[in-house]
Amino acid sequence: MTPIPTTTLSTITPARASARRGLSRALGALALLAAAAAPLSAEELRLGDLVIEAPWVRATPEGARVAAGYLVVRNTGAAADRLVGASAEIAGRTEIHTMAVDDKGVMTMRPVEDGIAIAPGESVALKPGSYHLMLMDLAAPAVAGESVAGSLTFETAGTLELTFPVRAMGGMGGMGGSNGAAHD
Ligand SMILES: [Cu+2]
User: Fold this and answer.
1) Which residue in 16, 73, 113, 155 has the most C-beta neighbors within 10 A?
2) Structural domain boundaries of the chain?
3) Average pLDDT over residues 56-61
4) Going by CATH, does the domain composed of 44-167 fall within 2.40.40.20?
5) How far does the centroid of ligand 1 lie from the alpha carbon of residue 46, in Å?
């Protein structure tokens, strides 16, 4: 007679290990949920690979003809882009300006020719004393505490509609006081 083989049933139940994996998966999912639930800043906006942060417009005195707008653009992509245009509801037209010291040592501002380049991985700040949006031919003042609807247009990413909170900030940076004297 052939001997009956003794079958060894030493299979280890994987239940315990699988339970542990399940728990860590659940914890991971919870962490993801928590991250997703954290609200983005109301003043941070995304357009393709670009992140637009902290847009604002400086409040203008009564009768002012121009106002300045500021923001930061961060390029999280692998290709360069350019800020080439902007608009604001209170302005007849909006230009992109740069400030520089001329050969007489006077701080002046002028429109940038080909927009502002934003290299991949870099961010560019439009800020007092530097690049800024120039809201021209104002139809209404920029009032602190209110906001101004507008748009930004980028060469590659396209156009983003956004609102600029209006803030009364000090006159430093060459844009206060005789606000707009350098413009016609
Ligand atoms: Cu300007």
Assistant:
1) 73
2) 44-167
3) 96
4) no
5) 25
